[in-house]
User: Fold these one by one.
Assistant:
Number 1:
Amino acid sequence: MSGYIIYHYNILDQDRIEELGPLSKPIIAKYGGEIVVGSGVRALEGEPYSNMVIYQFNSMDAARAFYESKEVQQLSKLRHSITEGVVVFVPGFSLTQSQSDE
């Protein structure tokens, strides 16, 4: 079952935000992930952060391996100086496979 990592954030340093994409894309590819959402958000309820990126991986294990990798942990230091927000893991959903099958 797919695994997702969601970055929900505000940009603190607009001049530097473009640095993150070129640095993160090779790491995402290395772990078999892809960006499925990457844009500003429009709130229907509540006060969200202004941007969201969702990465999809083949499994939660792959998503976790990506996030815990040395490359991502190093990139996180830069990301924290440019953005503020939250990062969450979310398992995919299937009507034919239970989440415990993973």
Note: The longest strand covers residues 3-11.
Number 2:
Amino acid sequence: MFGNISRRALARLLGGSAAAATLPNLVSESGAQTPAERVAGHRSFPPGFLWGSATASYQVEGAVHEGGRGLSIWDTFSHMPGKVDNGDTGDVADDFYHRYREDIQLMKNLGLKSFRFSVAWTRIFPNGTGAPNQQGVDFYLRLTDALLEAGIQPFCTLYHWDLPQVLQDRGGWENHDTAKAFADYAGYTVSKLGDRVKHYMTMNELRTFVEVGNQEGRHAPGLKLSRGRLAQLTHHVVLGHGMAVQAIRANAPAGTKVGVAENPVATTPVIESQEHIEAARKAFREENAMYLTVIKEGRYTEQYLKRLGSDAPKFTAEDLRIISSPMDFVGTNVYQPAYVRADANERGYAMAPPPASYPHMYSPWLTIGPEALYWVPKLVSELWDVREIYITENGTSSTDTIAADGHIYDTDRVMFLRNYLTQLQRAVSEGVPVRGYFLWSLLDNFEWADGYDKRFGITYVDLHTQKRTPKLSAKFYAEVIRTSRVA
């Protein structure tokens, strides 16, 4: 069928318009490979690539009043009228606290090599500081033991937005002491899990919990801070990250790896020409100035400080040294692009927002731009010489319903994943050091202010019975994992 087809025409058949430029020469002089083998090679990932999935404590665990757990800001926020769609809360969620063994069997059935979970700070320290709670420690020991018994490598996130309410009552991340409390919690947790867990992420999506929770007020704790207060809070957050890196180093066994899971502004050239690519590179560094850039460079950019003026955060040289404590890897959560074009302005770039008619998934914010999964790891690697990158989240919501035959045919999610993974394979094939991919999410779960309406899982969860039903996308992902190629 493919005997006389051109490389560019074959790229079109593969569904990867952007892949044409990177498509390897599929015609060997010996003619040893079949056309199917050539296509498979083009879409394949290297041996040892780590395929996983991810969840977060408040989104799946439930059991909020069990095991000595204290209250977090999301317990408080979700019970405030009008804050979460349909009045949903995480009180029960997916009942993962009781059903984790059942869910680990789901992971085994999929063939997952790794599972990214988060520890609930208030299960370890119910009041944020003070005496630890052994019941909470024991739960995560049982969880990680069960994962390892199943041959699944645990990746642990130490903060996925569930700040202890007691600490919020003392000022939350606006209070410098919260950074120290976080580091103490991180160090203690790692001292207990360190013989089981070898990869830790300090925090998940700094930008989201800072800005959506403390500027826009749509997430916990529901604040709308002034620009100056927000800038200082942001500084305390990245300082807490750096202090946690140091605490993990001090308490973890040799060979432990530490990173962060950030959702950077995914600057993507609107046209893949040199001028627009360079603009995207400049934009990536500047648009992420207060998060990944200061973490990797140990300084705030001149443009960032100039833009804030008198609202710039107060900091010391020692703060910057701590913030930039060396990491072993960078995790990036990638969902949508931020298109960038070259411009003659002072910054050298301008944002090119998509029009209202641009296609998006069931979550209105999730505009479809698969090439973001190529450009984010590429720019992270090039800007800061990062040698180990993980895609710590990628996935989509969908209007999932159970068909008459009992199946869930989430074809839109399958196509979303296929297109995004094709772009990730493009990056990996060019030598971008992406070592693994964590699909969001294993289960339908509590999607923050959207409640349970926006289903991100590849496993359907009946919230009334807690029955789990793998969707079509689960079968797709299982095939990706089995063959380590875009299915």
Note: Confidence is low (pLDDT under 50) at residues 1-35.
Number 3:
Amino acid sequence: MGKQIDVAAENDLAEGTMKAVSVEGHEVLLAKIRDGFYATSNVCPHLKGRLSEGELEANIVTCPRHGSQFDVRTGENIRWLKGKGVVSGIAKLLKPPHSIESYRVEVRDGRILIEVG
């Protein structure tokens, strides 16, 4: 088990919202969706866009730079770059799809804890 870091109060985030938090040198996206709190890397692996500046719909966060999408529950890549056709195909060959790191989250005594390490 890693180290648990207190990052926010449980009532700091409304359902369907997200924010960036710093956890032991990691830039982390903290999101609250219907079934709880989730944490992933806040940095898109494509061109380092800040996911916290993107949009959250249900459990999917969309990068504001090129539309890559990730599941905040797992970090799984759902869509790599927005668009279709030859340009999108070439972009995917040059930089193949990547998932993002996810972190274990626990709520204890009204505080949100993220596990790192």
Note: The mean pLDDT is 92.
Number 4:
Amino acid sequence: MRALQSLLILLGTYLLIILIDYLQGLNIWHSFYSIKQYFTVARGEDYFLLISFMLIFLYLIIFSAIKNRQPPSS
């Protein structure tokens, strides 16, 4: 279940990047280039969304690890 949530966050972040690129007048397929080329042409909001995703992803991993350590309460 956690993997599905993480994948949905990744997909949502990537769709936001595509939408912002499209609104800026770039080709809609512009974001499907290689990672190296993508980071070369990325703008500030693209980096913001990528960093936001990484922070949310790390939060989910750490939160689920802490939650699994605690004994179940009855």
Note: Residues 2-69 form one domain.
